[in-house]
Amino acid sequence: MAYSKFTTPHARYHAHFVTHQKNFLDLSQTFDIHYGPVDAVILEIRGSSILLSGNLEESIKKVLSGNLQPEDQIVIVYARKHKIPLYIVEPEINKGDYARMWGNLIPEFFGLPLLYPYTSLHENKKIPFWVRTAFGNFLFANQNSMGPGRNAVWARKLEEYIAPYLREKLGRKPRIGLNIGIGHMGIEKDLKYASRRNFTLRNWERFNFTRYQGMNRGENIGRIYEALPTETNWSIKKIETNLFDRRKHK
To answer: What residues are paired with 225 via a beta bridge?
Structure first.
């Protein structure tokens, strides 16, 4: 596993990058030791999980119950232990578009050798700034890839809704933990620079073969899920936003 930390106009982020395999480290070794307790955690729901469940909402319930993505239980246990919210900022997945998208993943694999030294399941390494920048720029140049598209969607929801909401609630910049695949480290620049995420989202909305290809044509793309731990389960709330209203981002 690997981690990095950075600050944006609205929040302090600690990114915990995983390989979607079983992890052998407690998240407290990443979030608490290197950064301090976080106020909320972002949980990635993989496209394959959404397809298995039929839709995003059902997959969230199954992941939280441990029936999907068991390797991510460390995140769920961490959030429950610290009584903090989990946010899911995924777009909905359309089965036909998702299958078509796989061919667009090929360019991403050419950048993976940069990340290999940081994929250990038994130790946690900080990813140097130059590696994060090089890999992020490599993927950004390939605008048709699902990676930059999802990064931009996540970043807009985080910087333009979740972070301001938490800041108002806490009275300070929130500390947000990201638990996402190592191939998404390019999200750092999307979080820091609105112009970068807006460029990608404009391409995905208007020029990328079909509107929001692989993201259910943009249906409910602004929706955010907030999961709060209860005594025995999770309370899941749907938050509807107009973050992707074209009139807001001309």
So the answer is: 88, 238
Residue 200: CB atoms within 10 Å: 23
Ramachandran bin of 218, using left for φ above 0, alpha for ψ from -120 to 50, beta for the remaining angles: left
The residue type found at 62 is: K
Q: Residue 147: helix, strand or coil by DSSP? A: helix
Query: What pTM was computed for the model?
Result: 0.86
Question: Any long-range contacts for 6-10 (C-beta under 8 Å, 24+ apart)?
Answer: 6/188, 6/191, 6/192, 7/173, 8/159, 8/163, 8/191, 8/192, 9/159, 9/192, 10/159, 10/163, 10/164, 10/167, 10/173, 10/174
Determine the 3-state secondary structure of 207 from DSSP: coil
Cα gap 72→22, rounded to integer Å: 8
Domain ranges of the chain: 2-248
Q: Which residues contact 243 (CB under 8 A, 6 or more apart)?
A: 156, 157, 160, 161, 222
Cα 21 to Cα 1, 12, 24, 123: the distances in Å are 10, 26, 10, 14
Give the SS3 label for residue 226. strand
> 110 — phi, psi (to 5°)?
-70, -20
10-51, pLDDT tens digit by residue? 999 988 887 765 554 555 556 555 546 899 999 888 776 776
Distance of CA 56 to the CA centre of its chain: 14
CB-CB contact of 87 with 43 (8 Å) = yes
